[in-house]
Amino acid sequence: MIKPSARESAFAGRELGIVVALVAVVVAATVAQPTFLSGQGIHDLFLNASIIGLLAIGQALLVITRNIDLSVGSVMGLSAYLSGQLFLVDKDLPVIVVVLAGTALGAACGAINGALVAIAKVPALVVTLGTLYVFRGIDYAWASGTNTTQINAYQMPQGFLSLGSGSLLWIPNLTLIMLVVLAITAYGLHNFRAGRELYAIGSNPDAARLAGIPTGRRVFGAFVISGALVGLGGVMHAAYFGTINASVGNGRELAVVAAVVVGGVAIFGGSGTVLGAALGALLLTTITSALPILGVPAFWQRAVDGAALLVAISLDRAFMVRLAERLRAERAVRRAG
Amino acid sequence: MTASVPPLLELRDVHKSFAAVHALRGVSLELHAGEVHGLAGENGAGKSTVVRVIGGEHRPDAGEVLVDGQPVHFSGPRDAQQAGIAVIHQEPTQFPDLTVAENVFMGRQPLRSFRRIDRATMNERAAALFDSLGVPIEPGRITRGLSIADQQIIEIGKALSAEARIIVMDEPTAALSTVEAERLFRVAKRLAESGAALLFISHRLEEMYEICQRVTVLRDGSLVTSASMADLTRDDLVRSMVGRSVEQLYPSRDADAGDEALVVSGLRRTGVFADVSFSVRRGEIVGLAGLVGSGRSEVARAIFGVDALDAGTVTVSGRRLPLGDPRAAIEAGVAMVPEDRREQGLILDLSIERNATLPRLGAVSRWGLVRRSRERDMAARWADRLGVKRGRLADPVATLSGGNQQKVVLGKWLATEPAVLIVDEPTRGIDIGAKVEVHALLSELAASGIAVLMISSELSEVLGMADRVLVMHEGRLTAELSKEEATEEKVLQAATGGAQ
User: Fold this and answer.
1) What stretch(es) of chain B map to CATH 3.40.50.300?
2) Beta bridge partners of B14
């Protein structure tokens, strides 16, 4: 009886659109090089998309509330570096302790961002542009202070490295972690008051306050959760690559924001899904992997991320204009009827 | 009214000051169950402050607020809501990306196990709510694109679902067409019948007489009178509001129409309007009536070139305009005062003089640089001519009252010395005193040879001002009536598509 709203069905369409684009890229790459779609190829695709996907899920929470976090690359770098340093101190440290420590560090960075945004009322764009450099600076200072420019795989325990490279039932561990996080956040956003309140805040901040929503607390919470996911992503990066220096995650913020926007989360808040954001991450990763196969040098990757961001925002704009026109037409029809 | 039952809400001798401004000086007010109580007064009389005190947004400096005879102290909107008070703001505050049902229940969604939101129940309850209001709105659709009238119904739904017994409506009809307002009145009456107390604020006196049983009049923050509506004639009411008798809301004027200044023919924007042809002569005021959404504003925007046209021609003073080019329209002498002055007509944070000279920067510039002294001179000339009360021309426009803001918008365009002036809802949301001045101004402009096209939802304004009335219905012109022919009935009939 109750039809899905125009917007909801349209965004289901958006997710379908990403899948279609994904298939197109995969088909093109497979034609050029049949091994692209081999078991190993798919395995690698998902593995590569997992960390960026995790970051995109966190970023989506913030963008939905009409905020943004540009410091994700730096936070991820800090957390990855922390993982390495912990093992330098004690190589026998349990893996779970390192995972929790990295996640907590990310949450702490998120709390700093969140406090500046929610309590000091500084726009998120400015706050996180600042902390992007502050956190990165701390990372570099730490590296030079301890005289450790690089931490290598042999300095880390095998159990930690296999977290990054291992799989369970053919699914890479990191992908599993990302999927679990995706399922939990998607379910939470849809089914709990706090989740809907994030949408309300992004849709109309003033109305959210009038409706009695604790907007500051919610935004702060979103920053902390997103920070924790970025911290987790940093640990995953350390486990996956096994080589860590102070520039891990440099410039990742562009790819993360691009993934979120390509995934259909409105840049001015209020709509979009974490599933879309994760799919956006998968699409961008796949394009990046397909570029060399299609004869495009890999150093075009950032240009492609940027272009995808522009195309997605332009499409959203065009879509909103069309939606507005359609709603107006519907109203006219209703009036007539 | 039985005297033994305490009023649902009572204000006793409430005072409130903001810095040096004494906004309320001893206001008392009683809202009884089953009663619609009007709150009248010019802009700045203190109506909004009363609303904010009741809604918990402001705390009174002195005096008491009582609910059910018990003194209450609200420390925020939340407290007021919990005491059963709901304020329906002039501009509805919606979440455009969320569904109607979510808007109604935000923060109070029905829950199932593990504190999860029970969507099915939520949608059912919302549907039942709108049914009980007699206004079917699909609970599952997003709010974006709903008319202001529908958004207000959602606000009322919100109030009902929170079981509010005291409902404050702050100028709910300012943006509604007659039909939509009628629907709102039906809902309001039904609420009162079911035992709620309503406080109704409006600038339209007819509405007060239609639905209010009692009225309280404020002037300059003081209580002037509180009386039964039946005991108060229209003249009494106006006199108590403005402190003087308004001789005539609409200036009399001998229409001395000259050549055709604006001729439009065969305008069509697919899906919005079609076959729109008419002309406006110099010195003539032509009223364009119709319901909100009938395409009136869209036609105006298309003539001015803001919106694209699919077909048709626009001719100004014999010159055909290129379509979709506002610059060409301005150069040809067309000026437009848009419907929403806050969003389209003014840059609120900019000073009065900057706003006033914006379309005429060329005239106050030399070698591409704006000369401040000339800018100030030009703004001062127009502010004087329009009678804009102003502290300083350098103050931001946002500090002016609605009526004065509207005059700045008018002044801004008049500075271009137009041949054709298009005004869309020129007196929406401004008080009677300012209305009279705007009307006088419009008629003075017409007398000086400007062709005026006036869009208005207020029937009495169209009938009082226009030499000729055009009526639109669903994107088509359905009637053209001379001043003599135009009656309320005929215009309404044409506007609702009834038989001629």
Assistant:
1) 9-94+146-242, 260-495
2) B27
